[in-house]
## 1
Amino acid sequence: MNQESVMKIFEEQGAFHKGHFNLSSGLHSEYYLQCALVLSDPKIAAGLCRELAAKFKGEKIGVVIGPAIGGITAAYEVARALAARGIFSEREEGKMALRRGFKLEPGEKVLVIEDVTTTGGSAQEVIDLVKGLGAEVVGVGAIIDRSGGKAKFSVPFKTLAQLKIETFRPEDCPLCKAGKPITKPGSRK
């Protein structure tokens, strides 16, 4: 599966939007990828995540973790493809935490998975959480890296597609300056 075929899936599912968006990172953009629409089809979700999981074969991963909400389905499907345990982190008092009885063992090999990476901030928060619990992060994966290669981690970062979609700080956003109405489609408040 190459970048072109991944983007074709997003377009066919009506999941590649143009407008004025306030992303969960706090940045603004003219484009938004609604990965939840793509992952709502189990067959498509399984196929994409199998491809992403294949990039990490041989790593002996015991747990796949994704940040809530966007990373939950992708992490679960990658975990299934790797025959690993699939869990997710969620924000508690503004910080990523494990809840719902999820645990990580010291030394356990963990893969962090996101649906779409914009800045890498959420994935980095999960990396910090996992390391803080004594587990070992072996990599980060995302279906789409929309950072244009700017998201960097201390572990390998592998994706199915990489896009360079410009983002703006709110005070520098030309869409705001042009008075375009804004939508906040992400999962963070």
## 2
Amino acid sequence: MSTEAPPGDFHPRTAAARGLASCHSCGKVQPVTQQRCGRCDAKLHLRKPDSLQRTWALTVAAAILYIPANVYPVMRADRLGGAEENTILSGVVLFWEHKAYPIAIVVFTASVLIPILKLLAIVTLCLAARRCRRPRAMTRIYRMTELVGRWSMVDVFVVAILVAVVQLGSLMSIQPGPAALAFAGVVITTMLAAMSFDPRLLWDAAQDAPQHHE
């Protein structure tokens, strides 16, 4: 009869359990009792200080900014005959009506879908840091969240380029709307939230979680 534990129930001892800390500046692993990194003299911590608190605060701020980012116009076009304002969603609809389907899909994915998914992913990671039974899966979610977050800036880049290029005096000019600043805030705060989250907390929670045998 085999006494080997199932792969899903195996939780190896972490470096923190052995009193080892990875320097946040240079990455050198060394005893946390040294208090200072022997290579770069940075202060040693077993985990990022107040990681969950800072991540939650930044995530809540991003969720609040996401409302004006979608309600207010992201761009204003002044032309002969009047002015036209577009929100992110109305811009997507406009591209779709003009049969610019690839652009509409890219803008919707980068400016609407990715921020929502990123907020949900960060909330899921914060909850999993309290009690986690699938640390590998949660770590993959964390890596994806860090990878795709920067692509949310596509809408802000488009507005910035149009503002710089389309300045035709009395014929036509484009100005950024209040939503552009709010949307940039959403992207920045979600990126900072992902950076402040310490994924090693997932493995700590996995060690503390009760093991189940199938």
## 3
Amino acid sequence: MMNSTKRLCLWSGPRNISTALMYSFAQRPDTQVYDEPLYGYYLKKTAAKDYHPGAEKVMQAMECDGNAVVKMMMDKHDHEVVFFKNMCHHLLDLDRAFMQQTCNLILTRHPAQVITSFAKEIPSPSLLDIGIQTQAILLNQLLENKADVIVIDSNELLKAPKEYLAFLCGQIGIPFYNEMLHWEMGPKEFDGNWAPHWYSNVHRSTGFQPFEEKSLKVPEYLNSLLNEALPYFEQLQKHIIQL
């Protein structure tokens, strides 16, 4: 059941600022946010359930039928804007036709930074785990189908959060609110139940962290993964919105 609600689908890779961006949009008076609604589906369908912390608890708490999740996303909502924070690799083999009716935000980050951060939780990530290949494939599909898609570089956002978010809201076609720049410290009621494993840094924050240059080196044993990921990141870079 469609209505006039603006549906924003964030398609991020892991270890990015996706949770902070969700917190930012949650401060808007016109917006409802959803935290990784396809995570249960992803865990149920893949071997990730064997090594993601708290996987059984996540699957017990969530809808694990991907088609049912998409139906929920596209059903009627009470808010003018709904923001779905998604990991792009959670899509798996779902029919992506629904993206023709959503504003798709691809949030990317240099793969060296993603890999280094992700490896602190899961020591041997795969190309699927870090999401960058899936993001590049998704971008090409969305462009081919002339769907609404915007590519965001998290580093560019962190350099000038107010200006970048205002520009992003203009691209989406919604007003910018200064409230998007700050939130209260601590867990949020809309956090997924995996938050204790992944959200410690953002729970200590009250806004976007100041930008700082990060090393583009990875542990030596992960160099082959970085080399696999770089060509996909270069594809995404060509479409990143700039102030």
